[in-house]
User: Which sequence fits this backbone?
């Protein structure tokens, strides 16, 4: 089968605000990214997913866009952006833009007009409703706490915002809105970007009056129209942030025959430590068996009719090594274990900045240390509901998005080499030990494990195309699977526990063909295999 470039690629996500500052204002920028492209080339990635770099008042750090065709002043200029695309291309790296079109900023010109009154030509670009019995139209809630409806005194109507009130939702039913989005996408495609990551794209088909938000009836119609009017004729990667996708829904998005997106980015595995029916702040311990079930389901159910992303981290999630691994005694081992387990699966892997050097969560003790609007709104809401401060801070330490957003740790100099100024968000104090320079100097580092995994994927079609089989006859804490392709079989074994564990699988025999491992290992004897804490390896059978 002829692979598409994005099927063999590994994508690296950059959160520009926190990646590299070049002018000392404490905020990462495009020139900063350019200076780090050699580092990314060395790692071996094929594409960068760039979190939003457009003009924005930063109520939600760039996910509230006020101008889609201009660069955020703090990040640089359009010339810098053109240079980034060009410099990346020289290194065979494509730039994937973050497409945030479920909503704009309330400071976008369209909304400024829309707000002027019911007769304004832009009124219908957004979702305005009359009060019902003097109250908000219905009970839709914002993902950032509180009602999703905001009252506008002047016109006596409410507008919908599924995120903050500074992020009004666009009305996708309006053909002019769609045309504006297509024009904007074509502007970026003509610049030579490598594709789009589509922010909460599952929400664009919403029917607010019926309280339907995700997976609305017109969603796929809009995506087919988008494909036809914009990227359909380009060889680009398009990935939808698709909350609530089942494998069946994933096929709707990503079956090549349907001409929608290249792949989905779904969260079923990463929500497994959330209490049933509660929200993200209410956690429970992870069941490794559940994780095996969910990841395996996604490995086996798409066939040739869909494509999935592989990830543990992004800018909205706590760091996996702190969350489900061990960021103290077995920091290196557990970080590599997560990498090996995931990167040998089928799908397109995503690495979130700093993951490749084992960056960890960063604890806070007070709400004044928090920048993220989601955590701040939740704090206020839960305080009013009677939760104690300690409980709320604890949940922010576990699940808050700032955990992933602390500046990239480049070296052991002041502010980790991120900035010469005052960083917009504090640097994790562990930067003296955990940083890029230290990783590059240690042949055994987490960085080199990721680099080796990326190279393995480039060299071995079995990783891209092989069949996946879960091995069930192992203790719960061991995650083991096989990949099979053209007569070859690989076994991937990962111990999720901080205790050693033994497995006996004589039918797999013995092998000295170790492909990658996080402890020194020259052979594997499956009839009597003792795994060390967080041990992981892949072996050719
Ligand atoms: C998902 C993004 O990943 C997140 O950071 C953002 O807050 C929301 N969408 C709203 O755009």
Assistant:
């Amino acid at each position: 089968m002829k692979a598409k470039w994005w099927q063999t690629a590994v994508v690296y996500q950059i959160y520009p605000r926190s990646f590299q500052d070049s002018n000392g204002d404490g905020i990462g920028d495009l020139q900063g990214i350019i200076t780090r492209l050699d580092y990314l080339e060395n790692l071996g990635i094929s594409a960068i997913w760039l979190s939003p770099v457009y003009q924005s008042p930063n109520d939600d750090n760039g996910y509230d866009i006020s101008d889609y065709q201009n660069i955020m002043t703090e990040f640089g200029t359009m010339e810098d952006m053109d240079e980034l695309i060009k410099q990346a291309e020289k290194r065979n790296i494509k730039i994937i833009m973050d497409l945030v079109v479920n909503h704009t900023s309330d400071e976008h010109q369209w909304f400024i007009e829309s707000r002027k009154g019911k007769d304004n030509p832009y009124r219908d670009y957004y979702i305005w409703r009359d009060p019902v019995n003097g109250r908000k139209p219905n009970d839709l809630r914002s993902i950032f706490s509180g009602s999703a409806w905001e009252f506008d005194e002047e016109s006596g109507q409410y507008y919908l915002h599924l995120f903050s009130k500074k992020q009004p939702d666009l009305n996708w039913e309006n053909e002019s809105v769609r045309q504006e989005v297509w024009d904007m996408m074509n502007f970026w495609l003509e610049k030579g970007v490598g594709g789009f990551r589509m922010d909460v794209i599952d929400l664009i088909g919403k029917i607010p009056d019926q309280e339907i938000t995700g997976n609305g009836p017109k969603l796929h119609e809009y995506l087919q129209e988008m494909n036809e009017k914009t990227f359909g004729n380009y060889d680009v990667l398009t990935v939808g942030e698709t909350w609530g996708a089942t494998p069946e829904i994933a096929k709707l998005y990503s079956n090549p025959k349907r001409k929608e997106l290249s792949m989905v980015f779904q969260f079923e595995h990463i929500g497994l430590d959330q209490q049933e029916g509660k929200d993200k702040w209410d956690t429970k311990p992870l069941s490794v068996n559940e994780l095996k079930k969910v990841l395996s389901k996604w490995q086996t159910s798409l066939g040739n009719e869909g494509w999935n992303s592989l990830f543990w981290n992004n800018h909205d999630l706590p760091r996996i090594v702190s969350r489900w691994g061990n960021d103290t005694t077995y920091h290196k081992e557990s970080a590599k274990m997560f990498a090996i387990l995931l990167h040998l699966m089928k799908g397109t892997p995503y690495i979130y900045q700093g993951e490749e050097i084992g960056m960890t969560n960063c604890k806070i003790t007070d709400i004044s240390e928090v920048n993220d609007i989601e955590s701040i709104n939740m704090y206020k809401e839960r305080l009013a509901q009677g939760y104690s401060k300690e409980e709320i801070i604890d949940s922010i330490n576990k699940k808050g998005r700032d955990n992933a957003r602390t500046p990239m740790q480049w070296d052991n100099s002041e502010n980790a080499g991120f900035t010469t100024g005052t960083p917009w968000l504090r640097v994790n104090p562990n930067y003296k030990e955990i940083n890029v320079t230290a990783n590059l100097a240690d042949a055994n580092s987490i960085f080199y494990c990721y680099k080796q995994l990326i190279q393995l994927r480039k060299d071995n079609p079995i990783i891209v195309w092989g069949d996946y089989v879960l091995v069930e006859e192992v203790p719960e804490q061991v995650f083991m699977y096989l990949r099979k392709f053209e007569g070859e079989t690989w076994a991937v074994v990962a111990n999720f526990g901080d205790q050693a564990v033994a497995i006996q699988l004589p039918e797999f025999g013995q092998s000295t063909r170790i492909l990658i491992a996080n402890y020194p290992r020259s052979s594997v004897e499956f009839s009597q295999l003792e795994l060390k804490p967080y041990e992981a390896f892949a072996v050719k059978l």
Remarks:
- The CA atoms of residues 480 and 493 lie 4 Å apart.
